[in-house]
Specification:
Length: 207
């Protein structure tokens, strides 16, 4: 029996804009050359690298809910995940959360909210232990400049986004976004994982 691949730490950033008809989210299509979820629509993000762990942020991540009840992670590791989400978003979409100095982004994590955690199935040859963060961009003008990692980048209403080719976790996250109130604050935190190939969800109420 083959041992499961150890999942790598990764992070995604859900960029949301409030509109009259409900929230809009930024999604792009993963290029067909990708080994992981090719041609599927996804949020910007990627794996944590060494620089994310040593990055000095402009403003640190603010934890305003008890995420450790659903995610017993070290705070330094969690900060690195948030930095990775912001860095990957800048590289893939051109949206910089923080100033860019001499070609380097200084991440501002103060607006990020922890949203959920998901681990890919044990049967998968490529596995990630991913954290999803949410950032409200309502009223902020942004110019999308993709790097080619994500194609067809656009803010889309949630109902429209749900009709795109999506991984099951992306579909789940979009469904949760549709239920958020005007302040876009999640009322429950989810830990999404798999058992025998079937998704399981554990819920925790933020403190």
């Amino acid at each position: 029996m083959t041992r499961p691949v150890t999942p790598k730490h990764a992070a995604s950033l859900i960029l949301v804009r409030r509109a009259a008809d409900g929230p809009e989210v930024l999604l792009g299509r993963r290029a067909g050359r990708h080994r992981f979820l090719p041609d599927m629509y996804a949020f910007p993000g990627g794996r944590v690298d060494a620089t994310d762990r040593s990055e000095i942020t402009l403003k640190p991540l603010t934890l305003n809910n008890n995420i450790f009840s659903v995610d017993p992670i070290d705070e330094h590791d969690l900060q690195a995940l948030a930095v990775a989400a912001v860095r990957e978003t800048w590289e893939e979409t051109g949206i910089a959360l923080g100033p860019v100095e001499n070609g380097r982004l200084r991440p501002d994590l103060s607006g990020l909210r922890y949203f959920c955690r998901a681990i890919t199935p044990a049967e998968s040859p490529i596995r990630f232990d991913a954290r999803f963060f949410l950032q409200d961009l309502t009223g902020r003008e942004v110019e999308l400049r993709g790097s080619g990692e994500l194609l067809d980048l656009a803010f889309r209403p949630v109902e429209q986004a749900l009709r795109l080719p999506l991984a099951d976790i992306t579909e789940f996250v979009l469904g949760q976004i549709a239920q958020l109130g005007p302040d876009l604050t999640p009322k429950r935190l989810a830990f999404w994982r798999y058992r025998r190939g079937k998704p399981m969800i554990r819920w925790e109420n933020p403190a």
